[in-house]
User: Which sequence fits this backbone?
């Protein structure tokens, strides 16, 4: 028994020595925790920014060691202005405000498109104003939000129907003010976003008539940053993109839950989110269509005297390809 007890004692001693050695090694090799990088994103509350909204809500940014503060805005033009004012590192915004900013000389770059839709914009008009077809808009008072996709879409759909900008009276209103202005009869029609289209239709009931044309315009919603920030923080950009790609997968696999997140972010009824969701594609990408849209809209802005610039920029200088190429290479299809 003494021999056995001695053997056990020796075995325990050896085990304690080994465990102590391993513990010491573990302490030696353990690296101090890296604090998350603090960044700010000027984030739009409507559903178009769903990838960023999901990434924020489900902790995908945090998983990439990013501590994100979101500054919320009702649409992308305001979010971009927030970033340009130095209040945010990233912004979610559609392509038209991006185009105007670049034409003004702002050094920004798109790091990814995160949503596209062929039916995001529409014209809603009052039937009792004598508007039963698009041609009836001639001579009418139409509200837009200047410098946004609504501005470009209005001119495009008018031109397709033989109406020039000079043939209508364009009124500048915030997107969230349009439904009430139309309901009160202050204006005859509005160029508006899909969520506000549905809200306006519900407010006006049978008085409303809506015009869409999915063949004339594709809206793209994007994430942008200042070129200097991208140059100094390429790893942060990659982390942002990885979180967005995770959100993309979540949306594909869990559309109902993603719609609930988008509804909570915007305070929009879930039934409205559900109605507009099917017409959108939520994916991180950089494609040739973005490049063509920026060029087409630049020419439109020049032709209509909406910018002091007289030449179309080389937009390849304003799209950052390397980040998404490293994270999701098959999503980059822009030709140099």
Assistant:
């Amino acid at each position: 028994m003494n021999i056995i007890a001695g053997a056990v004692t020796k075995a325990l001693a050896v085990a304690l020595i080994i465990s102590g050695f391993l513990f010491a090694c573990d302490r030696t090799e353990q690296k101090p925790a890296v604090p998350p990088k603090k960044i700010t994103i000027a984030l739009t509350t409507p559903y178009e920014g769903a990838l960023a909204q999901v990434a924020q809500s489900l902790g995908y940014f945090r998983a990439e060691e990013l501590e994100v503060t979101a500054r919320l805005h009702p649409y992308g033009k305001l979010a971009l202005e927030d970033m340009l004012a130095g209040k945010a590192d990233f912004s979610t915004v559609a392509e038209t405000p991006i185009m105007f900013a670049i034409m003004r000389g702002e050094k920004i770059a798109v790091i990814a498109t995160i949503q596209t839709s062929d039916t995001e914009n529409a014209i809603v008009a009052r039937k009792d104003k004598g508007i039963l077809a698009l041609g009836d808009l001639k001579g009418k008072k139409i509200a837009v939000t200047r410098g946004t996709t609504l501005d470009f879409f209005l001119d495009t759909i008018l031109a397709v129907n033989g109406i020039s900008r000079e043939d209508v009276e364009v009124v500048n209103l915030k997107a969230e003010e349009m439904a009430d202005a139309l309901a009160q009869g202050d204006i005859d029609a509005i160029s508006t976003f899909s969520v506000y289209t549905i809200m306006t239709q519900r407010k006006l009931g049978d008085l409303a008539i809506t015009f869409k044309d999915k063949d004339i315009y594709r809206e793209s919603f994007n994430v942008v940053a200042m070129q200097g920030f991208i140059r100094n923080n390429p790893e942060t950009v990659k982390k942002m993109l990885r979180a967005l790609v995770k959100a993309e997968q979540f949306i594909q696999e869990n559309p109902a839950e993603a719609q609930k997140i988008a509804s909570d972010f915007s305070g929009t009824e879930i039934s409205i989110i559900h109605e507009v969701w099917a017409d959108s594609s939520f994916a991180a990408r950089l494609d040739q269509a973005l490049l063509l849209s920026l060029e087409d809209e630049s020419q439109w802005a020049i032709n209509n005297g909406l910018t002091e610039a007289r030449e179309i920029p080389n937009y390849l200088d304003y799209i950052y390809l390397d980040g998404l190429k490293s994270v999701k290479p098959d999503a980059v299809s822009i030709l140099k």
